[in-house]
Amino acid sequence: MTVRYDLTDHVATVTLNRPDAMNSFNQAMLDDFAAIWRTVKTDDDARVVVLRAEGDQAFCTGVDVKEGIDRHPNVWSQTDPGEHLSPKLNQVWKPLVCAVHGMAAGGAFYWLNEADIVICSADATFFDPHVSYGMTAALEPIGLARRIPLGEALRIALLGLDERLSAARALQIGLVSEVVPRDQLWHRADEIARIIAAKPPAAIQGTVRAIWESLDTSRTQALRTGLSYTQLGNPIGKADIDRSAVPRQRWHLR
Q: Does the predicted TM-score (pTM) go above 0.85?
């Protein structure tokens, strides 16, 4: 398997497991992720996903340039790898927490662009090498421009291999929400996921879906759709609270 999948206490932990190839994705990994998102989508025991990576050097460096991926010979029948890798394109509305260390490059943004929370270790660097290899940088920076200021997305796309975004700068521009020591990265991601998983899943998934779908519509339509999601999800979520009667945790200052 190119990835490891573990489900414990409602947290699905997905670990990229091609460290010798900088956790780049090949066709096997695309197929594995398509299966993972199908599982996460339909398994109500999985409430939150943590994505992390093995190895010391990289979270992911995009497509495996040595092995490549399967491409249909008809250019008009070819598909974007994001159709396999991206949770929202697979209509998975369970939160994704990404724990990034080392290099996160190119196709790694398929996950980062659709993550709900991204944290990283101090050694993390972010870059998109496409233009340095004579390739148009389009899919990844288009998604990235929805997360960070347009000028920052363009800078990453246009400078290619000649500049890497540091963890500190990623925090400044909102690409990540937290920077932690490397030896605490996996623990912190799991901690965040467990806090979310303890909340009523109907409320969490409705929140994720309402916010992400609002990006594709006008403000008025987004508000109308959001209202319908509260009407659908609130009775279920409140019933979960009433059944569990779990005392609220103390809030944390960030």
A: yes
